[in-house]
Inverse folding.
């Protein structure tokens, strides 16, 4: 519900009262008692005492464990200490938020009380009713927050911490302890020859892959939408359904299907498609291509397949936008003598970008982390660029291999995860800042 | 004379345009249908087929389906995936609907900050936090279990979809709520009886997306599920063709169409709501 700030002047005593209530509730509950809200005060004080007890029995030990990560091998499990410490950080954070809310509440109620003490709810029923009215939106968002806290925020924190430890196949708890090593992991990635070369090889292919595959997707998607939007086309509905098929079929099925088709010895591309092209185009002799064996041709195949897989989404989106462009604009441009290309360049394209630019960007960031495409087609192979990465591995599939291989490098994987996150978030933020996504005043 | 010539060039330009348009559409259609048709036909081919291409000379049979259900763990995988998918769908749709409604209808303290938080969290590629999930799974004994995987699926979809849901709720006029409240309906009744029925199309779309995701997700499932009887279909099907020496392409094809057909059917059934859902949420954020 909305609060409108009114200009009210309080007497010095009243101001003193408000201040007192606010600062008393630095120990939750006391400010509420001062405002004569005994039930609420009791409740808040109870939460405060619970937190203190939790801090003494578990919290202090958890913080200590997070700092030392264990001292006795086999007895202390460094990873569990790390997790428990992270959990305690979250609990403390939640308590601090509660503390802030509680002080704001005392402040607000004290203001109401200063105007007219009768307006303050003191009975249990009134408190409940008030809580139901003001608290309803919070109640609605709690389930989403709880799940997100443990499925997103918590893993992100743990990743952040692991990147600063030496957790790898030499240090597997509980047999050995894991220790904090500061920035060593990051320094290794950028200075040790083996990791540095792999990192830059994988990173540059990741960038090339993201740019080419996504751009291909966008070009085919927008192109198909524009072509299909022409008035004269018959069987529009049939074509429309066909264009949606790559989206309707689960991606892993099509990727595996293509993986079979690009099999160099028995797959359809070498046994059927290339001979067919040779036969219809005179003087053309393409020989069999070593897909999945030669890195270059494997990359070409992967990018092309992603174009196939990803364009329908763009096509659907663009079709929707095209239909919303008023026809008068085109008619006016024809009177001014615009060609079809000019119409496309100066009316259609700007309109598409105006609406869909943020979604286009999510396509780029999505492909940056498109694990399925890379791993299901050829498991990141062929060949190797060192440190377990194959020649078509992108950062995320390299992370997967670092974590699942026979000699796992969890700390390097975590560090690369952080690098990925920083890249993706920075780009998204730049774009969202420029568009209107951050405007909440609807 | 000049005018006639202009008309003639215009006419031929139009004819060329027509030609290229249909050529493009037909070519693209062939490129789309060809791989799918290979999979569909392969599923019904008997004997020891190794080649994966389009040919209609074969012993047509249903053997592959028979083998799929009797000689492999396919039905177990299917059942596992259904369990995960339905749980993900129910919990996620419930959570995002409640949260989306709150963000659309109430102006509460911390609203804007937490909306921004959702937007930023949505960009984090959580799926890459494999090490963290591994360590967490060790602690709560979640390795090789479905509940842990389901939980991460649910969480991963919440931020983005809450935004989309909020965008859709915003399209329902707030006057409806206000008049319901004037007539004496409480918070819950306004939500349940007035607003919720109006966002049913978006609910259907969200449910479909949440349901489809576990069918296609490979990385986390492959990482967390260790024993074959716990696999989801995506991992299971891959085992049919991952061994270069023993590629059971016809078995793979049979398993693939049993997944693709129902999902594609659901997809086309709900497809008309997609665009409105995409643009309602997409254009605003």
């Amino acid at each position: 519900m909305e609060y409108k700030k009114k200009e009210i002047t309080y007497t010095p005593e009243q101001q003193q009262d408000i201040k007192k209530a606010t600062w008393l509730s630095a120990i939750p509950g006391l400010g509420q008692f001062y405002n004569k809200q005994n039930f609420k005060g009791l409740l808040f004080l109870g939460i405060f005492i619970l937190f203190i007890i939790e801090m003494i029995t578990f919290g202090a030990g958890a913080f200590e464990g997070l700092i030392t990560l264990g001292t006795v091998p086999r007895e202390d499990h460094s990873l569990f200490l790390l997790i428990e410490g992270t959990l305690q950080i979250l609990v403390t954070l939640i308590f601090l938020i509660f503390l802030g809310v509680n002080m704001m509440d005392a402040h607000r109620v004290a203001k109401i009380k200063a105007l007219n003490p009768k307006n303050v709810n003191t009975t249990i029923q009134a408190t409940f009713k008030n809580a139901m009215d003001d608290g309803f939106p919070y109640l609605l968002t709690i389930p989403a927050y709880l799940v997100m806290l443990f499925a997103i925020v918590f893993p992100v924190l743990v990743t952040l911490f692991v990147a600063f430890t030496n957790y790898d196949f030499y240090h597997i708890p509980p047999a050995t302890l894991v220790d904090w090593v500061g920035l060593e992991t990051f320094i290794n990635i950028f200075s040790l020859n083996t990791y540095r070369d792999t990192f830059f090889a994988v990173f540059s292919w990741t960038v090339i892959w993201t740019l080419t595959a996504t751009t291909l997707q966008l070009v085919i998607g927008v192109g198909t939408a524009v072509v299909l939007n022409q008035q004269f086309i018959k069987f529009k509905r049939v074509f429309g359904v066909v264009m949606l098929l790559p989206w309707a079929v689960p991606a892993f099925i099509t990727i595996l299907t293509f993986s079979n088709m690009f099999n160099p010895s028995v797959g359809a591309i070498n046994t059927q498609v290339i001979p067919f092209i040779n036969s219809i185009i005179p003087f053309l002799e393409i020989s069999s291509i070593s897909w999945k064996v030669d890195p270059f041709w494997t990359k070409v195949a992967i990018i092309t397949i992603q174009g196939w897989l990803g364009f329908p989404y763009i096509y659907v989106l663009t079709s929707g936008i095209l239909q919303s462009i008023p026809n008068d604009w085109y008619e006016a441009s024809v009177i001014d003598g615009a060609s079809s290309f000019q119409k496309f360049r100066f009316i259609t394209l700007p309109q598409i970008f105006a609406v869909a630019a943020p979604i286009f960007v999510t396509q780029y960031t999505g492909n940056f982390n498109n694990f399925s495409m890379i791993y299901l087609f050829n498991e990141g192979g062929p060949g190797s660029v060192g440190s377990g990465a194959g020649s078509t591995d992108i950062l995320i599939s390299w992370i997967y291999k670092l974590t699942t291989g026979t000699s796992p490098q969890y700390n390097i994987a975590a560090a690369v995860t952080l690098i990925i996150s920083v890249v993706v978030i920075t780009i998204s933020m730049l774009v969202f800042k420029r568009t209107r996504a951050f405007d909440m005043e609807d | 004379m000049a005018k006639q010539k202009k008309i003639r060039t215009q006419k031929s330009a139009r004819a060329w345009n027509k030609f290229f348009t249909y050529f493009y559409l037909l070519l693209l259609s062939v490129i789309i249908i060809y791989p799918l048709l290979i999979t569909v036909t392969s599923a019904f081919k008997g004997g020891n087929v190794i080649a994966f291409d389009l040919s209609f000379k074969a012993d047509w049979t249903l053997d592959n389906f028979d083998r799929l259900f009797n000689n492999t763990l396919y039905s177990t995988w299917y059942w596992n995936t259904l369990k995960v998918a339905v749980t993900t769908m129910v919990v996620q749709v419930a959570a995002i609907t409640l949260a989306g409604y709150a963000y659309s209808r109430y102006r509460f303290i911390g609203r804007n900050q937490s909306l921004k938080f959702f937007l930023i969290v949505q960009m984090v590629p959580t799926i890459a936090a494999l090490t963290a999930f591994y360590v967490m799974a060790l602690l709560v004994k979640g390795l090789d279990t479905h509940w842990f995987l389901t939980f991460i699926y649910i969480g991963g979809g919440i931020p983005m979809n809450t935004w989309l849901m909020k965008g859709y709720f915003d399209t329902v006029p707030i006057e409806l709520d206000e008049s319901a409240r004037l007539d004496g309906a409480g918070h819950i009744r306004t939500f349940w009886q007035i607003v919720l029925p109006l966002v049913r199309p978006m609910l259907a779309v969200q449910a479909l997306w949440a349901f489809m995701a576990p069918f296609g997700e490979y990385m986390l499932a492959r990482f967390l599920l260790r024993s074959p009887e716990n696999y989801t279909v995506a991992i299971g099907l891959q085992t049919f063709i991952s061994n270069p020496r023993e590629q059971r392409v016809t078995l793979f094809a049979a398993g693939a169409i049993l997944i693709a057909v129902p999902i594609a059917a659901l997809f086309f059934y709900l497809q008309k709501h997609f665009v409105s859902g995409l643009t309602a949420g997409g254009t605003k954020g």
Notes: Chain A has two domains: 12-162, 188-434. The CA atoms of residues 236 and 432 of chain A lie 35 Å apart. Chain A touches chain B through 106 residues (CB under 8 Å). Chain A has 16 helices and no strands.
